[in-house]
Design brief:
Number of helices: 3
Number of strands: 5
Shape: elongated
Strand content: 15-25%
Low-confidence stretches: none
Radius of gyration: 17 Å
Largest sheet: 5 strands, antiparallel
Helix content: 40-55%
Structural class: alpha+beta
Mean pLDDT: 94
Number of domains: 1
Length: 126
């Protein structure tokens, strides 16, 4: 197995150090996507220009996802980034100021990070 295909496991401090770059990437791509979102919202579903607009919108989202992936994180939704810690993921969603949520491996609901750390004292939080 190619080692580069192994998922990156983060500590909280590593994810926090990467967050400024994640924010910059997200803000830049979000600004690039905004005019296309407006065009898409204003275009009727039967407009012959709509497929071109949709393709460009999707391309810009894929560019963002690719950049997030290249730094080792995962794009979990539009403007939602997750950092794998092994037993779950640290979660940041634009425009949050910091990583403040955690989703355990066996759950689908984001929990407040501070509460999870207090209750479980995970190794990755050191």
């Amino acid at each position: 197995m190619d080692i580069s295909s192994q998922p990156k496991l983060f500590t909280l401090s590593e994810a926090e150090c990467l967050l400024p770059l994640i924010k910059k990437i997200t803000i830049t791509q979000r600004e690039a996507l905004e005019p296309w979102k407006i065009k898409l919202d204003r275009t009727l579903s039967n407009d012959p220009r709509r497929p071109v607009i949709e393709r460009e919108y999707e391309r810009l989202v894929l560019v963002w996802r690719g950049k997030i992936s290249r730094v080792g994180a995962r794009a979990a939704g539009l403007w939602v980034v997750e950092f794998d810690v092994g037993d779950g993921v640290l979660s940041w969603r634009y425009p949050e100021l910091r990583i403040a949520h955690f989703t355990p491996e066996s759950a689908t609901i984001r929990r407040k990070l501070s509460e999870y750390i207090e209750e479980n004292d995970p190794d990755w939080a050191l």
